[in-house]
Amino acid sequence: MTEQAQNTTHFGFQTVAEEEKAGMVHGVFTRVASRYDLMNDLMSGGIHRVWKDAMMDWLAPQPWQRLLDVAGGTGDISFRFLKRAPGAQAVVCDMTESMLVEGRKRADAAALADSLDWVTGDAMALPFADNSFDVVTNAFGTRNITRIQDWLDEAFRVLKPGGRLMILEFSQLPNPAMQWAYDRYSFNVIPVMGQIVANDRASYQYLVESIRKFPDQETFAGMIRKAGFGQVKYRNLSMGIAALHSGWKL
Ligand SMILES: C[S@@+](CC[C@H](N)C(=O)[O-])C[C@H]1O[C@@H](n2cnc3c(N)ncnc32)[C@H](O)[C@@H]1O
Fold first, then answer.
1. Where do the H-state alpha helices sit in 85-200?
2. Substitution site in 9, 24, 25, 49 for ligand 1 pocket (most atoms within 8 Å of beta carbon)
3. Are 51 and 77 in contact (CB under 8 A)?
4. pTM score, whole prediction
5. Are 168 and 142 in contact (CB under 8 A)?
6. Would you say 78 and 65 are in contact if contact means Cβ atoms under 8 Å apart?
7. Please, which pLDDT band fits residue 139 given cuts at 50, 70 and 90?
8. Superfamily for 28-174+203-248?
């Protein structure tokens, strides 16, 4: 028998061929783009803003830095970074054009236009030169990427020596009772909210399932080390509902 085993991955709780996942994720974010920012506030009760501010507190942006925000969507991280460090430069890179289009419509995008670029590109094959950024970030994008290790390798490649990676992603609660309560909220409330606000239950069902498939804090820290990063550390946010991971290209 000569037929090769097909590489598979997960799309939420479904098993799919690796080459299908990016198209499915692209479909989700194309469909939700116009309601994405509103849904983030509603689903998290605004907490995603606190987490993104905590990311900036740990990152401590500097005016001389050039930031690449991968899977940057509608620009939340780049806007925050540039407001904290006027004079810095930022590039928002995302594979879903509709998300970038929504980002460009935001008032912050006009105010920060001189320091901000929007680029369509894939985290697993970043369209940037080696050693070209001081900081690489990713917020809530990593769990959507088909081959996470390839994206981490790419982050390492495009960072300058001495540069820093910081990733904000959903994570695992340490206590099973808390995880149970959080799962009840995620699985029962968020898809219904998606149906009502974005007229798209299936996309939000995928988003909550993808959270449960993401590796725990220690496993993810190991993947970052495997890509070559040093001084890898993480901080839990809201007891581990989300976590920040930081690593350095030493
Ligand atoms: C949940 S959104 C996060 C957007 C933004 N970072 C934020 O925090 O609001 C996830 C984003 O990841 C992007 N994405 C998923 N896979 C990607 C890939 N392989 N390369 C680039 N972007 C990707 C999607 O298009 C989507 O805009």
1. 97-105, 107-111, 148-158, 176-198
2. 25
3. no
4. 0.95
5. no
6. no
7. very high
8. Vaccinia Virus protein VP39 (3.40.50.150)
Quick: pLDDT tens for 45-65.
999 999 999 999 999 999 999
Q: For the chain, what are the domain ranges?
A: 28-174+203-248
Residue 139 is encoded by which pair of tokens? Answer: 């917020």
Q: To which H or E segment does residue 164 belong?
A: strand 159-170
Q: Is the pLDDT assigned to residue 130 strictly greater than 80? A: yes
**CA atoms lying within 13 Å on the CB side of residue 38:** 10
Which residue's C-alpha comes closest to atom 27 of ligand 1?
73
Residue 225 CA to residue 209 CA, distance in Å, equals 26
| Ligand 1 neighbour 203 (Cβ under 6 A) | no
pLDDT higher than 60, residue 1: no
How many percent of the chain have pLDDT more than 90? 92
Say if ligand 1 is within 6 A of residue 76 CB. yes
